[in-house]
Amino acid sequence: MHIVRFEGEMERQTRHFSDTFWTALCLLLSTPCNLKIYALPESGKPNILLILADDLSWFDLGCYGSKDVNTPNIDKLAREGMTFSNAYTATAMCAPSRQQLYTGLFPVRSGAMANHSSVKPGTKSMVHHLGELGYQVSLSGKEHFGPPASFPFERREGLTIPSGPKPFCLVHASRKPHDGWPDAKGYDPDEITVAPYLVDNRETRTALSRYFTEITQLDQDVKTLLDDLKTKGKAENTVVIFTSEQGSAFYGGKWTCYDRGLKTAFIVKWPGLIKRGSKSDALIQYVDLVPTLVEIAGGNSTQVDTGRKGAPGGRNGFDGKSFLEVLRGERRKHNSHVYGIHTMQGAWIGGPYPIRSIRDERYKYIWNPMHEGGFVNFNNIGNRLQCWQSWLRDAKTDPEAAEIVRRWVKRPEIEFYDTEKDPYELSNLAKDPRYAKLIIHLKKKLESWMAQQGDLGIETELSNPKSSKEAQWKPRLKKYYKANKVAYDQIFSRRNLQ
Ligand SMILES: [Ca+2]
């Protein structure tokens, strides 16, 4: 038995039929010419397995070009599916990143803007939308969302696939490779590559080796899940998605709007429907995922009520839009621009420090409206990754190290990068007259997006509550500044100490 799906302006539904060829032909002949037809696998609606890493930089995977990190199982998934080279989250922090992934809404509109924050009451998620389409929607691993009524996932433990009769959507939200890494195994600190945005010293190499070790452990978890999918006979009828979440906690990744923070690995395997080993450079973003899943599940994503007002079309719809046609190889482009938003409010310490960004396929515009005081968070107050102290030490005598440190803590109001020529966003072109028109164009687009979201910039930043942990970190900040005064005096104002 085959399932044929008809998509039209007024009607999108999945129909079963097992009649004769003539029945199919009659249906085809009565179908308006703009309708698209494709076959879903024989067993009906496909299952969905979404594997989400935690703080994994997209470029630290073999299939995204890493020469250092051993990820054979994720690489194999890429060879069997479609690999996206231009996928983004809008926020490089855990809670807002995954809440936009699960709701299809950007952070200001949903309310989940600060780290450790929750969406506003009444917001719906993929659990509601896929549940209405007959799916069992469950989650194993990390949550980092709220309130529970907006994310009523069925909880699962371990690395196993559901085996019930209903089609399933399982999110496996790994905690790997979030920092808190194991001792290095299989990676020699002397042999690895250190990217130019990091200070190349013994401490950085040791930290990278430990991070790489945990990425390889994550890769093994991916194998365990995919093996169970095969054992249960569901591999052929399951859409498997792997995405890396935001970039790692190494400086200039997580907690920023640089590509090292916002860009994400995104791989989709769908046997029979996605061309094996295909690649897409379409601009997609995390808010596009749930609309796409709704379409995969046979629903109409443009008719979904997200529970929040203020959609781009003025109703309660998603901020994102389905990229199913890209998966099917029918379209190459998707969005013209993708957006970024950041706040340090709620992230233990460091706020306020709002950042907004916009990016087309090549150029990136970043606005830091409260940049004067410097950027602070617990990564450059404590010694969380066990290498920041060494960077300050080296910065006293090494001008290159001093420049890397300065770039992290002291940024201009406007940044503009050519990401094709400068993928690590190290050369700010904001004052280059050749880009003046494009900068104004992107600024206006960014402002339109902020207006749609109800984002008032600094006012919105200051309305976010500070973290309850800020008070306990403040004395540590002062002590730390005092201990490193020589290095910091060159790069850092005292405003955040007041
Ligand atoms: Ca994370």
Task: Explain how this protein is built.
- By secondary structure, the protein is of the alpha/beta class.
- The chain has one domain (47-493): Alkaline Phosphatase, subunit A (3-Layer(aba) Sandwich).
- The chain has helices spanning 21-29, 72-80, 94-103, 107-110, 126-131, 202-231, 259-262, 289-296, 324-327, 388-395, 399-409, 436-453, 458-463, 470-483, 485-489, and strands at residues 2-7, 12-17, 36-40, 47-52, 82-88, 136-141, 154-156, 168-173, 238-243, 263-269, 278-280, 284-285, 338-342, 355-359, 363-367, 414-418.
- The strands form 3 sheets. Strands 4, 5, 6, 7, 8, 9, 10, 11 and 12 form a 9-stranded mixed sheet that branches. Strands 13-14-15-16 form a 4-stranded antiparallel sheet, covered by helices on one side.
- Strand 14 (355-359) and strand 15 (363-367) form a beta hairpin.
- Helix 10 crosses helix 11 (399-409).
- The longest helix is centred in the middle third of the chain and has 30 residues, at 202-231.
- The protein binds calcium ion (CA).
Question: For the CA atoms, what is the radius of gyration?
Answer: 23 Å
Ions, cofactors and other bound molecules = calcium ion
Q: What is the end-to-end distance?
A: 70 Å
Biggest β-sheet description: 9 strands, mixed
CATH superfamily: Alkaline Phosphatase, subunit A
Number of helices: 15
Examine the secondary-structure arrangement and name the CATH architecture: 3-Layer(aba) Sandwich
CATH class assignment: Alpha Beta
Q: How many structurally independent domains?
A: 1
